[in-house]
Amino acid sequence: MELNARYLLDTNVIIYLLNNQLAEPLPAGHYSVSIITEIELLSFSGLTAGEEKSVRDLLTELEQIPLSSDTLKNKTIQLRRANSIKLPDAVIAASAIINNSVLLTNDKVFNGIDGLKYRPLRLLDDKQ
User: How far is CA 100 from CA 18, 19, 22, in A?
Assistant: First the structure.
């Protein structure tokens, strides 16, 4: 992948990254995260203080995609109308699309969303 590539990290990829479960390093490029992912990560009920610190430290290194743009709102509405996906997933997909980013995710719910570029990542326990 090219160095100027843009990636949006889904919640599951950040969890895999923090738990050292990725089979290979993330591709070179610019990384961002939806505010929805931040909310999902920090709202786990069993999150320890150490885990919260690790999440917050990583999030400070990533560009935050806020919910405030009309473009994001309209794209999210369009995706929800066209696909059977939950609102948080629609916001994440819309964030990737409008920011011209490849969504790094292992969540199959994003398969088949028109205009979304996504890439699953191999995990250490994958049988390949």
Answer: 25, 27, 24
Q: What are phi and psi of 32, to 5 degrees?
A: -135, 170
User: Rounded to whole angstroms, how far apart are CA atoms 99 and 65?
Assistant: 9
Cα separation of the two ends of the chain: 21
Domain of 23, in residue numbers: 6-119
pLDDT above 50 (res 1): no
d(CA 102, CA 60): 20
**Residue 111: which CATH number?**
3.40.50.1010
**Structural domain contains residue 124:** no
User: Does any domain span residue 125?
Assistant: no
pLDDT tens digit sequence for 47-58 = 999 999 999 999
- How many domains is the chain partitioned into structurally? 1
**CB neighbour burial string for 41-72, b if at least 16 within 10 angstroms, e if fewer:** beeeeeeeeebeebbeebbeebeebeeeeeeb
2: pLDDT strictly greater than 70: no
